[in-house]
Design brief:
single chain, alpha+beta, Alpha-Beta Plaits, 3 helices, elongated, binds zinc ion
């Protein structure tokens, strides 16, 4: 069944454009539901720190999603700090929290990040 990419309304097969939004229908909506299930756990202010967090978690089999809170397009950073939020699936929140806590204690992570 075709969907409208604007209002996400589902139409009958014979319909080609959304009468509300005046746009062509698409066969499949982009899969956004899975990423919305992720829970934001930790925030860091630079990409390097985010990479450390990501590798720490993925090493333990936890898939990570990073949300960049800056508005796009990203302009050169004139003293404005990046705000990257690290998110994981709900089942892994506790494990991820523990790993990050340990990472902070043994110095793998700097103290600039913070738990959300
Ligand atoms: Zn529509």
């Amino acid at each position: 069944m075709p969907f409208c990419p604007e209002c996400t309304y589902e139409y009958k097969e014979s319909v080609k454009t959304c009468p509300e939004c005046k746009v062509d229908l698409i066969e499949k909506l982009p899969e956004v539901g899975t990423t919305e299930d992720y829970i934001e756990l930790y925030m860091v202010s630079n990409r390097m720190e985010a990479d450390v967090v990501i590798s720490l978690l993925t090493e333990h089999g936890i898939s990570v999603l990073v949300r960049d809170l800056r508005s796009f397009p990203v302009l050169p950073d004139f003293g404005r700090r990046a705000r990257l939020r690290i998110a994981v699936i709900p089942e892994k929140v506790e494990e991820a929290r523990k790993l990050l806590q340990e990472g902070r204690e043994d110095g793998a992570l700097t103290s600039q990040g913070r738990f959300l």
